[in-house]
Design goal:
Shape: globular
Number of domains: 2
Radius of gyration: 22 Å
Structural class: alpha+beta
Helix content: 25-40%
Largest sheet: 5 strands, antiparallel
Strand content: 15-25%
Bound molecules: delta-meso nitroheme
Distance between the termini: 27 Å
Length: 448
């Protein structure tokens, strides 16, 4: 039994709107903030029950709320949350995540480490988002001060659902036991406490304060993507590959697919290693039904011909690479792209001038076992997946090595045992570690 009216809507299924504003603030007047939170803001917050209800349409914009460790302290919510990364905050964790050290590329406002809370406001259009933000700011007056805002939006037209490099996102998410009503082929089933604090499977379920039931830690990352540079890198790399059967552009498409382990259409490379089969990508019963293993003579320890060990989705969910598929290190992803489309001038000059990227959001019951495990222990560790015949190297998409080059094995499909080295095409602009509480916890202890 899971009380869906208690759980904020973004955690288990995502608000999934084409526009979403992330608004970060500092609290100046905790007393006034608590009053307004309980009286005016609380009734606007969108729960999971509301999102799945077909007969109770919600008008206007959707709202979710979250606080940092500093924010909870400011609101006098004291006591151990049993998450050391949440307690220390993301600024202090930046270099361990592989961000440039010192993190000079962080948005200055985030680097100041003054965020107390965030409003996530989502809708089909910007007008309802702007209206709800204006209303909330009107109520709160000078009791908060803006720190930073980021406007995420789906890309236009046919690119909707694809992120800035062009790849379809949002295909693979874990099914949460006690909530999911069905499991798709290849989907992983996790205990509710992998995502929700205080539930079965949360390693600290019995230690945490009781108000932490039905909430989740939220990781936010503003990840800038260098799209023309990524495209140019693929074309350059393609031109050095002897392959008469493909045009340079087709070789580049295959190299890009090998970095992700999916074609832009979403089709998994493990099922279609040479050419895209778009009909697989669009079929939810087939597009996640693979685990990188194949009958002999295929050798999962040595063979990167179908898909590199280092590729993004293999690093972040190793499937059969890890014999006891690790169900503890899974996250629910709820991010979306931000920034404008690549301009003609940027494409021509092969150089980014406008910032664009991914507003990454993940939910997990433990930051160290969720987002951080995937980023640090998997993506940034050159030896993961472990015990392969060839050192896998960095995740070519999200792997980070400070301001230094990264390398990945297996990208070149003609020489899959060779490394390629490059500067990452993603740059961290910073982020926050937050907590997204249950509805009852928002009233007490947070607003109390
Ligand atoms: Fe990744 N992208 O949109 O291009 N991611 N990701 N991610 N990611 C995935 O299978 C992307 C990032 C995961 O179950 C796909 O749904 C981009 C971070 C996980 O097999 C695509 C950025 C972390 C999965 C992208 C980014 C993760 C996954 C394939 C940053 C964690 C599922 C679509 C700019 C630390 C793995 C899909 C599985 C899939 C993109 C970041 C994790 C296309 C652009 C930081 C767990």
């Amino acid at each position: 039994f899971m009380p869906l009216h208690q759980i904020q809507g973004d955690i288990l299924i995502g608000m999934k709107k084409p526009k979403e504003l992330f608004f970060f603030y500092t609290i100046k007047d905790p007393r006034k903030f608590k009053q307004i939170l309980a009286k005016d803001i609380y009734p606007q917050i969108t729960t999971t029950a509301q999102l799945i209800c077909r007969t109770c349409p919600k008008t206007g914009a959707l709202l979710n709320v979250a606080w940092t460790s500093k924010g909870l302290k400011k609101l006098n919510v004291v006591g151990n949350t049993f998450d050391k990364f949440f307690s220390m905050g993301q600024v202090a964790d930046a270099s361990a995540l592989g961000d440039n050290d010192p993190p000079t590329n962080w948005v200055p406002a985030l680097l100041k480490d003054q965020t107390h809370g965030a409003f996530l406001i989502a809708s089909d259009e910007w007008a309802p988002v702007d209206d709800l933000l204006a209303q909330i700011r009107g109520w709160l007056g000078t009791s908060i001060v803006e720190v930073h805002r980021l406007k995420g939006a789906h890309r236009p037209g046919a690119f909707s659902g694809h992120e800035d490099f062009g790849y379809l996102d949002g295909i693979s998410q874990p099914a949460v036991g006690g909530f999911a009503t069905s499991i798709l082929p290849g989907q992983s089933l996790v205990l509710p406490g992998t995502i929700l604090t205080g539930e079965l499977g949360d390693p600290f379920a019995l230690s945490r304060p009781s108000w932490m039931r039905w909430g989740s830690f939220m990781v936010f990352r503003q990840l800038q993507q260098f799209v023309p540079e990524f495209d140019e890198h693929l074309l350059q790399m393609a031109s050095a590959i002897p392959d008469e059967t493909r045009t340079n552009q087709e070789r580049a498409e295959l190299l890009g697919a090998r970095m992700f382990s999916r074609w832009k259409s979403g089709t998994p490379l493990d099922l279609a290693p040479d050419y895209d089969v778009p009909a697989i990508g669009s079929d939810s019963r087939r597009n996640n039904d693979f685990d990188y293993s194949h009958p002999p003579p295929f050798n999962i320890v040595a063979d990167q011909s179908r898909c590199p060990f280092s590729s993004h989705i293999r690093k972040t969910r190793p499937r059969a690479d890890q014999a006891n598929v690790n169900i503890f290190n899974q996250i629910m992803r709820a991010g979306l792209p931000y920034g404008d489309e690549v301009t003609d001038a940027e494409r021509e000059n092969k150089t980014t001038t406008l910032e664009r990227g991914f507003a990454f959001v993940s939910y997990q019951s433990d930051i160290g076992l969720g987002f951080r495990f995937q980023q640090v222990i998997w993506a940034n560790d050159i030896y993961f997946p472990f015990l392969k015949a060839d050192t896998p190297g960095y995740d070519p998409i999200i792997g980070q090595n400070g301001a230094k080059l990264v390398f990945s094995s297996g990208i070149d499909y003609k020489h899959p045992d060779q490394n390629s080295a490059f500067m990452s095409f993603i740059l961290s602009r910073g982020g926050e570690y937050l907590y997204s509480p249950s509805m009852s916890a928002i009233l007490d202890p947070i607003a109390a």
